[in-house]
Amino acid sequence: MKESPDIKKLEGILRSSKLSSSGFMGSDRRSLGEIIDADLAVLSELGCPAKDIASKMQDVTNKATEALGNWIKIDDSRQAMITEVKGRIPCPWPHASNFAKRVTILRDTATGDEIKWSDLNIHLIAEHNFFEGKGCYFRVEPAKIAAMLF
Amino acid sequence: MIQTLLISVLIMSAISAGLAAVLVVAEFFLRNYGECKITINGEKDLVIDGGGSLLASLVEQKIFIPSACGGRGTCGLCKVKVPDGAGSLLPTEEPYLDKKEIAGNMRLSCQVKVRNDLKIEIPEELFNIKEYSCSCEEIRDLTHDIKLFRFKLIEPPDIKFTPGQYMQLLAPIYEKSKEEVYRAYSIASDSAQKDIIDLIIRFVPGGICTTYCFEYLNVGDKVKMNGAYGEFRLSETDADMLWIAGGSGMAPFVSILHYMKNTGNKRKVTYYFGANKVKELFLLDEMRQFEKDLPNFRFVPVVYEPEEEWNGETGLVTKAVGRNEKNIADCEGYLCGSGGMIDASIEVLKKLGLDEDKIYYDKFA
C-alpha cells in the first residue's frame, strides 16, 4: 500500500535516533502500518483492546509510583518498580504531548519474567495502537503484556 | 529506442538539477532577512544575520538559554520574554506556555525566528552562562546503573557556579545518534575546585546522552557542556534542614555539602537517602566523612528491601522521615529525585508541619 507523505515523514522520525538512541522501530523492516496491524491482530485474537492494555499498564504504573523506586506488590503473583531520570520525552506523532522519562518494570514473582514500559509506551499504545518495532528496547510484545496484565 | 530513453532520462535529470539549483538560489535570496537587531533587557543590542531561531542566534552570541532538546521544541525549557517583534504565537509553542505566560509575552526561543528587530528580556544571570570544552578525567561506577563522570575544564579553564545548579552536557553525533543533543545533569563537585565538574548520571536504556556517556565516552575524550543553570540552592537562613533524595538525586547535595564544609556552615542537616537494596547505596564513605567534617550533619540511608544484614532504616524513605521527624515547622525541606518521590516527600513534610513555601526541590521531570 502506498503511504502518504505524512506517514512517510512520521516513519522517518520513528526510525531515526532523534528522540531515542534506538529509535522506535528497532530492526523491524515492516512499515508502521504493518507493525500496527499485526499487533492489533494479536490483540484481536486475544480479545483484548489496545486501550484496555494501556489502561492496565497505567494502573500498574500508578501503583508502582507509590513505592518511590522500590519494588511494590501488585498482587500475589506480581510486583512492580519504577525508575525515573531527569527530563521529558515527546511523542513522535505530530501533536503536543511529552512524558516523564519513567520506566515501569512488572515482574512475575513465580517465574521471574519481567516486562517493562515507559510512560510514552502507554501513550503510544492508548492513542496510536503502536507497540514499537521488533528489536527496539522499549518494544512491548502484545501477547506477553496481555498475559502479564490480565 | 534505448538511446532515446537514455537521452530522455538525461534531459529530465538535467531539468531536475536545474530546478533544484534555482530553489537553492531563491532560498538564499528570498530568505535573506539581512541584519536584525536583538535588544536585550533594553540595554544591550546584538546585531545578527536574520533567518535563524532566536535560541540559535543567542547561542551564536554566546548567550545560552536553558534547552534540553537542542531546539526541537520538545522540552519547553527555552522560554524567553519577547515583548516586541516575535510575531504571533505558534501552535508548536502553545502546549508549553500557560495563559499567564502567553499574556506576559513569553515565547519558546527555539521556535521564534529572527526575521526583524526583536526586543527580549532575560534574567541577568544568563549572561554568566558559558560553554566549556572539557576532558573526561575519570569514570567511576557507583551502582550497576549510576556512574560518576569527572570532567576537567579546558577552555575556559574554570567555572563559577552555585552548589545545587546543573550543567547541560552535549552528546555529540555518534554511532547511535545522528544529531547533537544536550541533556541536563546536576553538578556533584566542589564549587571551590573551579577546574572540575563532576556529574552523577543514571543510565537510561535508549537514552541518547546516557548511552553516549556509558557506552562510548572514555577517559581522555573531549566533550562540551554549558551552564551553570538552576535555582536549586541553599537558602541564606539558619533554619534546620531536612534533605531527601534517591538515585542520581544525590548529586546536588554532594556539591552543597562541599560548600558547607568550605564555608564552615553549622546548619543542622538530616539527609535521608533512599535505595532499593544495600548495594544501590553509594558514596557512603564520603557521607561518613562529611559527618565528621560537619558536626551538625547526619546521613540516614534508608533501604527499602535489605538483601543482606542491615542495621539502618528500612522501608520507604518518606516513611523513615515520618517515623523519625517530629514538628518540623521551623525547618526547610530540600528534595531531589523523581516526580513521584518529590510529590510523596512534599506530602510527608507538610503533614509534619512544614509549609510548602519552605520546601525547595529539583524535580527530574
Please name the defining characteristics of this protein:
heterodimer, A: 150 residues, alpha+beta, 4 strands, B: 365 residues, alpha/beta, Ubiquitin-like (UB roll), Elongation Factor Tu (Ef-tu), domain 3, 3 domains, 8 helices, 17 strands, 25% helix
Question: How would you describe what is shown here?
Answer:
The complex is a heterodimer of chains A (150) and B (365). By secondary structure, chain A is an alpha+beta fold. Chain A has one domain. Chain A contains five helices and four strands, in the order αααββββαα. The longest helix of chain A is centred in the middle third of the chain and has 16 residues, at 50-65. Chain A is globular. The model of chain A has no long low-confidence stretch (mean pLDDT 90). Chain B has 365 residues and is an alpha/beta fold. Chain B folds into three domains: 35-126, Ubiquitin-like (UB roll), CATH 3.10.20; 129-229, Elongation Factor Tu (Ef-tu), domain 3 (Beta Barrel), CATH 2.40.30.10; 241-363, Rossmann fold, CATH 3.40.50. In chain B, the strands form three sheets. A six-stranded antiparallel beta sheet of chain B has the order 9-8-11-6-7-10, with helices on one face. In chain B, strands 15-14-13-12-16-17 form a six-stranded parallel beta sheet, sandwiched between helices. In chain B, helix 7 (317-324) packs parallel to helix 8. Chain B starts with a helix and ends with a strand. Classes of the chains: A alpha+beta (150), B alpha/beta (365). Chain A binds chain B through residues 16-22, 65-71, 81-90, 96-98, 100-103, 137-138, and chain B through 68-69, 72, 74-76, 91-92, 94-96, 176-179, 183-186, 202, 204-208, 210-212, 246-248, 274, 276, 304-305, 316-318, 337-341, 344, 364-365.
